[in-house]
């Protein structure tokens, strides 16, 4: 793969979603488009070799529907782990991991089977063309109190552990008229989390759940939140990007693993390193500090738009150029 040629090689069965169609459309504009989703691993690897690809970038890693068996068959001379799986592959079939100096500090190199390739800014990039819907619902339309301080974590509920929930509930107990806005995943989770809130001295009515929406509508409603509270040890990653795009500051606590440092990478690239804490005690103090200073939250929100426009996080063209340079360095 070079800056002048590329191949799109979807390995996950199409589900008819707009995202799937968009990938297919991009692939048809590439030098080659090959749908290997329904091919066995051996045949898929053989077809890939026939394209004489220089660099294969695996976007799945160890995730649902990924195809590590194809990568294990070495269909390309250089194989790269990037984006889909926040950590090391642990595989000798993967040569490089695309990272940055925050998400994988040099002193953590020994924990990764791949050679690290450091990207400028962040390992992450988002498409700036995906914009919030023009119509922004009011808090009242969303079932939220209009005058509350609105914390949110519109992220997968499996990332919420008891230690994290303890911190959030202590913050809610200390900040009157604050509400925690979470993503609805299933009814049982909603019931359990409200029960756990009550056991920690917080009214269940202060935990509000948001139904899933199309991305543009989700980004529009997301802007109604005041502060996003991240999770540890598995950060919000795509969700942090969505919050920042919606103009919502994100507070995170950086751990040691890739998954525990990913949100911090995005925040550094967005010019919000002051919102990256080193332990949960500091995280809790920062949440209380910000909650007690609405003017500071407002200032962060105002600055966020300018920083994102000037920074690398939503600049796909800048990322493409950087990736092209790194690719040519490794293929000669």
Total discrete domains: 2
Which structural class matches the secondary elements? Answer: alpha/beta
Radius of gyration: 21 Å
Q: Give the percentage of residues in beta strands.
A: 5-15%
How many helices?
A: 11
Q: Supply the CATH architecture of the largest domain.
A: 3-Layer(aba) Sandwich
Determine the N-to-C terminus distance. Answer: 12 Å
Poorly predicted regions: 1-5
CATH class categorisation of the largest domain: Alpha Beta
Number of β-strand runs:
12
> What pattern of helices and strands is seen along the backbone?
EHEHEHEEEEHEHEHEHEHEHHH
Oligomer: single chain
CATH topology of the largest domain: Rossmann fold
CATH superfamily of the largest domain: Glycogen Phosphorylase B
Mean pLDDT: 92
Largest sheet: 6 strands, parallel
Overall morphology: elongated
Strand order of the largest sheet: 9-8-7-10-11-12
- Work out the helicity level: 25-40%
Summarize the structure in words:
The chain is α/β, with parallel strands linked by helices. It has two domains: 7-125 and 315-331, 3-Layer(aba) Sandwich (Rossmann fold); 140-310, 3-Layer(aba) Sandwich (Rossmann fold), CATH 3.40.50. The protein has helices spanning 18-28, 41-50, 68-72, 162-174, 187-199, 215-222, 238-245, 262-269, 280-291, 294-310, 316-331, and strands at residues 7-8, 32-33, 55-58, 78-81, 96-99, 115-118, 149-153, 178-183, 207-210, 227-229, 250-253, 276-277. Helix 8 (262-269) links the parallel strand 11 (250-253) and strand 12. Helix 4 (162-174) runs parallel beside helix 9 (280-291). The longest helix has 17 residues, at 294-310.
């Amino acid at each position: 793969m070079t800056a002048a040629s590329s191949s799109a090689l979807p390995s996950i069965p199409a589900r008819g979603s707009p995202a799937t169609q968009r990938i297919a459309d991009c692939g048809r504009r590439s030098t080659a488009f090959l749908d290997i989703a329904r091919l066995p691993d051996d045949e898929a690897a053989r077809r890939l070799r026939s394209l004489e690809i220089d660099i294969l970038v695996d976007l799945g890693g160890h995730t649902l529907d990924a195809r590590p068996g194809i990568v294990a068959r070495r269909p390309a001379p250089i194989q790269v782990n990037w984006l889909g799986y926040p950590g090391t592959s642990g595989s000798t079939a993967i040569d490089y991991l695309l990272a940055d100096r925050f998400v994988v500090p040099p002193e953590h190199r020994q924990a990764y089977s791949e050679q690290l390739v450091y990207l400028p800014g962040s390992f992450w990039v988002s498409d700036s063309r995906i914009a919030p819907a023009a119509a922004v619902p009011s808090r009242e339309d969303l079932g939220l109190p209009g005058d509350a301080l609105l914390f949110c974590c519109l992220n997968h509920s499996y990332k919420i552990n008891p230690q994290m929930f303890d911190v959030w509930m202590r913050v809610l107990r200390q900040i009157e008229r604050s509400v925690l806005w979470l993503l609805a995943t299933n009814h049982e989770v909603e019931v359990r989390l409200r029960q756990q809130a009550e056991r920690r001295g917080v009214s269940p009515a202060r935990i509000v759940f948001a139904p899933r929406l199309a991305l543009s509508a989700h980004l529009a409603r997301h802007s109604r939140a005041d502060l996003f509270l991240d999770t540890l040890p598995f950060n919000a990653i795509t969700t942090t990007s969505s919050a920042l795009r919606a103009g919502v500051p994100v507070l995170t606590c950086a751990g040691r693993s890739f998954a525990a440092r990913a949100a911090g990478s995005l925040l550094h690239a967005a010019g919000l390193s002051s919102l990256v804490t080193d332990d949960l005690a500091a995280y809790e103090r920062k949440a209380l500090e910000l909650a007690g200073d609405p003017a500071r939250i407002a200032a962060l929100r105002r600055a966020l738009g300018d920083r994102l426009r000037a920074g690398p996080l939503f600049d796909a063209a800048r990322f493409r150029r950087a990736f092209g340079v790194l690719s040519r360095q490794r293929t000669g």
